[in-house]
Amino acid sequence: MSTKLIYRIIVFILVVTLVIIGNMYRKERVENEENYEDFLNDLHFNLYHAIDYAETIQEKKPKGDSLDDFLHGFEGKMMRLYYLVGFSRSYVDLNVPKHFFYQSPKIILEGFYIQEEINKKRIPPFNQDGKLDKEELLILETMTGYMKQVKRGIEVSSNKVNTELPKDKLEQLIFKQVSHNYPKTYFDAINK
């Protein structure tokens, strides 16, 4: 075999390898972009329904068993967001906090205790007395406001998702709006 033939075979193998690797990279990049767009659409859809449900609770101010049903329904909406954001890490390269969506229904259904240097406060479960008081409505309104900010941040126009939103901007938006813990939610609510 001549050296020219060996050289041609090596070049051919390298070109084929580069074409295959380039195609695999392009396919993975397109798949990641599609996953990100799907995530944004799912996030928008689930935020819309959680916000709508929370606003319905605030408007209707249900009592008794109806309040229990509404609060458990809200928990379901928030848990969908929790799982969506939590599982997004497996198919979309995002580093976003998810604990807000988990903590929010827990503090509503189970209550919470704030123990800081200056402030010590026990917030009972929202359905303990069978109705929503002013403070509980303010907390729910504040949580709804946080979600509205995220929803607005991912929209191009009213109810149209910005699929061109850079991932780092989405991470910043979510981190800014929903990365805090429930004492901050409480203090944001009562200081309105």
> Which regions contain 5 or more consecutive residues with pLDDT less than 50?
none
Strand content: 5-15%
How does the helix and strand content classify structurally?
Answer: mainly alpha
Helix/strand order, N-terminal first: HHHEEHEEHH
Which radius of gyration do the C-alpha atoms yield?
Answer: 24 Å
Morphology: elongated
Biggest beta sheet summary: 2 strands, antiparallel
Number of helices: 6
Q: Number of domains in the coordinates?
A: 1
Q: In what order do the strands lie side by side in the largest sheet?
A: 1-2
Helicity, as a percent range: over 70%
Number of E strands: 4
On the 0 to 100 scale, the average pLDDT is 83
Q: How far is it from the N-terminal to the C-terminal residue, by CA?
A: 84 Å
Overview of the molecule:
With about 190 residues, the chain is mainly alpha-helical. It has one domain (about 30-190). About 70% of the residues lie in helices and about 5% in strands. The protein has helices at about 5-60, 65-90, 100-110, 135-155, 165-180, 180-190; strands at about 110-115, 120-125, 155, 160. A two-stranded antiparallel ribbon has the order 1-2. A two-stranded antiparallel ribbon has the order 3-4. It starts with a helix and ends with a helix. The mean pLDDT is about 85.
